Amino acid sequence: MDNKVNIFIDCCADIDDSLIINTLISLFINYDNINIIGISISYGKSWFDVNPHKIQQILNAFQINKQIDIFKGVNHSLYSENKLGSLSHYVSRLNYPSITGDILKSKFEELKNGKNVFVSLTNLTCFSTLIMQCPNLRLFIDKFICLAGAFNEDIDKEINIMMDPNAANHVLHDPIMKNKVIMFPYSVTSKFCIEEHKFANLKDSIPHYLLKSGEQKHPLFPTSDDILNKVIVHGLPALICISEYIKEDSNAYDWGYKEHRLIFTTENPYKGKANILKVVENEDSACKLLDIDQRGSAVVYDMNYDEAWKTFCHLLNEADDTYTRISNNWYSKNIKLLSMLVLSLSLFLSFIYRVY
Question: Which positions fall inside the Inosine/uridine-preferring nucleoside hydrolase domain (predicted)?
């Protein structure tokens, strides 16, 4: 297919990362034109509801643990040996191979068709490190999707650039990468908070995940209302961006974006604020973000939020159906295997009885 996409994901494995990754994996299972070539786990901002092994649990639940490689990402910002983010020492102890620029370049280089996309669900440190290790990696990446930036009054709530503005400046000023960046800033991602009517809609779509009795159909999601309520699904626009590209029946999300030249201030070598010092913008709109011909970093400022939320609920439901089908197939196959073993053993015992 012409709209095939190959994806590598860097994340910190918190709740909203898990929600996005399991829906992407469901798409990977159900559609031939999406390929997830690997997932890396990097440092994050807090311990709150974070389980780096959740990614492995999701792969095991979908029974594709041998099809998608998991890697250890980075455990600190570019210029700080002081481990920023309380997940940093946990990342250091993960029993996965470390991702390197050469490894990722080889993975993309082996692919002969499709659009190659790097999705960063956390800070930009990992990608910055990878392209410093292997500058030629940049030539094999068509789009770099990141959840970062703040361009309005919510500037102090932005975290993915504040944790490592040096990495952000490196990526956004790189002469090759700056025209491949698609950025979803905080003002866009914060619209997808699981609360009030959206939380009710989510319950209607997948009620078995959220029963107050604690009943859980499968291990893909937490069951507690208290855990999911008010979680912001920051990665949802990135998921929608990929979903609309691979699905011919996707809805129009009315992407509005501006092309920027971006510079972020750095307060000291270890942290910074996501302030824009220089902007040259070109306002435009697009049906499919992954198809745009960029002349600068594309910063999304608007989209059809209601339609995107409906699609997200549908994708979660699709992930549930996928898991249920796979689980039933596994159960059925093992019952048949057990029946065959019992039958074979009975025949063998019958043969021994007749001989002796």
Answer: 7-204
Are the C-beta atoms of residues 177 and 171 closer than 8 Å to each other? yes
Residue 86 CB-density burial (10 A; 0-12 exposed, 13-18 middle, 19+ buried): middle
Tell me the per-residue pLDDT of 158-214, one tens digit each, with 9 for 90 and over: 788 888 888 888 898 899 998 999 999 988 998 988 765 455 555 444 434 444 444
**Buried (b) or exposed (e) across 113-128, using 16+ Cβ within 10 A?**
ebbbbbbbbbbbbbbb
Q: What percent of the chain has pLDDT over 70?
A: 69
If you count DSSP H runs as helices and E runs as strands, how many of each does the chain have, helices first? 11, 11
Q: Model-level pTM?
A: 0.83
User: How far from each other are the two terminal CA atoms of the chain, in whole angstroms?
Assistant: 63
Q: Which domains does the chain possess? A: 5-330 (3.90.245.10)
Pairing of strands 255-260, 282-286: antiparallel
Q: In Å, how far are 6, 149, 184, 237 from 240, measured between CA atoms?
A: 15, 19, 12, 5
Whether residue 87 has pLDDT greater than 70: no
d(CA 114, CA 120): 19
Q: How deeply is 207 buried, as exposed, middle or buried, from its count of CB atoms within 10 A (0-12, 13-18, 19+)?
A: exposed
